[in-house]
Amino acid sequence: MKPRIISLLVSFLLSLVVLAFSFFLFHDVKSCLILVACTFLSAFVFTLIAIDMYIARRIRLVYKLISNLKIDKSLKQALGNNISDDPLNQMEEDVSHWAQQQASDIEMIQKISDYRKEFLGNLSHEIKTPLFNIQGYIQSLINGGLEDRAITDSFLLKAEKNIDRLCALVADVDVMSKLDTGEMPLIFSNFDIVGLIKEIAFTRDELAKKKNIKFEFTTNERKMVEADKEKIAQVVSNLLDNSIKYGVENGITTIKFFDMDKLLLVEITDNGVGIAEEHLPRLFERFYRVDKSRNSAEGSGIGLAIVKHIMNAHHQPINVRSNKNVGTTFAFTLQKG
What we know:
By secondary structure, the protein is α+β, with helices and mostly antiparallel strands. The protein has helices at 3-26, 29-68, 73-79, 87-142, 149-181, 193-203, 205-209, 229-245, 303-313; strands at residues 188-192, 214-217, 224-228, 252-260, 263-270, 318-323, 327-336. Helix 5 (149-181) runs parallel beside helix 9 (303-313) and helix 8 packs antiparallel against helix 9 (303-313). It is elongated, with a radius of gyration of 36 Å.
């Protein structure tokens, strides 16, 4: 309610009281009306001044105090520095707006908290599996396995593989952390993306031959892009590894390039097992696994999350489309060089 309306109501009620008493005392209509008019005007002015002094000014002090505190910017923006002619309603609207903002922030904090718990749980699981394996191999050797050279060699090799898996996991988490905090700056340069992908595909040739998977390029022309070569190599390596890991025997991984004005679109397509549609929205989340039954030997589950972070750092999108038992396509763009 506006201060003027409050003042009018107070003045009207007070005038009615004065009218009743004055008529009872004076029995003179003219004198009563003059007294009532004076009472009404005086009460209106006094009430209006009182409201301004004791309410509006205090609200201004509260606003000024809030603006001087190092608090959420949304509250400062909501409250501002000026008071309208209706400070009470303005305060109610502003506080209501701020409360809604705070509720939204609390919901976001809760989601972050849930995500943190899930992340720590997944990380703990990924670490425990190779650690328990290593512990088992060492205990077996201590309990008599050392006497058998074949068992010793076998267990030591298995322990080494699990140590390598742990080291890879720690390295991936370190990369993710640095990407999150901006401690891993991008070093941009001009390079041929076609040549880079061919080099990486060549290093995966032996792995691909185990499943008789072939790499096919739609062009041999140089395609120059402006990006961090090392980081993009990490993106391509992860995508090619996935195309082999989840590809089918005698499969094909096709690498396509499309000119898009100032951007170059790169698509890496396999004809592997594919991914069900319900998994696609969460595919780039850390430690998210499409098949929950896969153990950590299949990878840490953090590779695609790193890929997403690297592309975000380049301010370029990466998308995935897939059909179960048909194949999967990862597509990303880069600035032309």
